[in-house]
Amino acid sequence: MHEDAKILVVDDEPIVCLSLTNWLQEENYLARAVHDGQSAIEAIGQENWDIVLLDLKMPGMDGLEVLRRIKEIAPQTVIIMMTAYASVPSSVQAMKEGAYDYIVKPLDVEELTLMLKKIVEHQQLVTENILLRKRLTKRYRFGDIIGKSPQMLKVFELIETVADTNATVLITGETGTGKELVARAIHTNSSRRYSPFIAVSCAALPDTLLESELFGYEKGAFTGADRIKKGRFELAHAGTLFLDEIGDISMKTQIKLLRVLQEKNFQRLGGTERIDVDVRLISATNRNLAEAVQAGQFRSDLFYRLNVVNIHLPPVRERKDDIPLLISHFMEKYNVEFNKKFDRVEPAALDWMLNYSWPGNVRELENVIERATVIDQGPELQVRHLPFCNPEQRVAREPESLAEVEQRHIARMLQQNDWNVAQTARVLNIDRSTLHKKIKKFGLKRQ
Description:
By secondary structure, this protein is of the alpha/beta class. The protein has four domains: 6-134, Rossmann fold (3-Layer(aba) Sandwich), CATH 3.40.50; 143-312, 3-Layer(aba) Sandwich (Rossmann fold), CATH 3.40.50; 316-394, Helicase, Ruva Protein, domain 3, CATH 1.10.8.60; 402-442, Arc Repressor Mutant, subunit A. It has helices at 14-26, 37-46, 63-73, 88-96, 109-140, 150-163, 179-188, 207-215, 232-235, 251-263, 289-294, 300-306, 323-338, 347-355, 361-375, 391-394, 402-416, 421-428, 432-442; strands at 6-10, 30-34, 51-55, 78-83, 101-104, 141-142, 145-146, 169-172, 197-201, 216-217, 229-230, 240-244, 265-266, 275-276, 280-285, 309-312, 344-345, 380-381. The chain is elongated and about 90 Å long. Residues 391-399 have low confidence and may be disordered.
């Protein structure tokens, strides 16, 4: 039989139904007949049919109404109208309503044979393309992470290996490489996936506030604590807690975190009751924690607790094979979001993108594609859409004063580190308070 080719015959004349179904079965199709529109709609609702041979003129519900109803229920079903009247208006109307074609009674068997063969071949090709796409997507995608380079395929393997364990995982990599996406992929593929995934950015909170966020507090623990507040550890019970920028936490918080990992319980700030928690901890950093341990800035015992499994995300400049794949993914994403039609990249633009260093990594690449789809209609992403090769920027004058050099350098470093003040301060080899003063002095603002 023709693979997956099921044909429903709808005609009020029993002799037509009988002769057509017999002929279709002889041609190795799966065929069945019904005698009115309501029965056809019920059949479509109960089973998947590839093709419907539908009579245009039937008592009660006519063929056009049945056509509309089928298209609502199963829009992918191909409908061929049958009519004893070679009426151009009715046939044109049927085509407008979504019919594939029409055929005039008495049916020309040769014409119908060719039509059915063409439809089945097309449907099989569509199915093969869908399956191929799914296989490629599965191979080059893990959750929301895209990549086909050897480095990323290794990351996918590691995620799959550690996901359904309780091992603590340390994800390392530069800013913008997608560390939180990896953490979410691990959680989603674990037995904890139906429990909470709680993410905390350690760099975004001052030390005192971070403690209260992680462990919560009792009423009256400090001025303004007018109620009990559960911390992120409690909220993540039975699930996963993701601590981003773990390298920025203070020694005091490191000690408390180590105690939770060892004892699996903690106390809220201002409290005496010990609260038991079952939490899988995943952390991430763009710092070299081994060097921080050597420098006395990070506890070695906590580092070994966190680094049971290490997953390193390479920067985009080291996985250039993935750049076309990422461009295609983000174009598709923002085409849908902004109703645009980008479907290709100008060769010169692709050359720029392959040779650019991408200091902001995947996040920067996504921002470039988003910007292009916002400011233009497509269908081609061109060099003029790329902010890092803007002609005006290339001919910009050289800074004149030392202060201007300092201002531009700080602004560039902040942008490259996605305005992570702690990370930027480390890159510049100054403390955070000094950097905050510089930002205020120069009036720097995040774009």
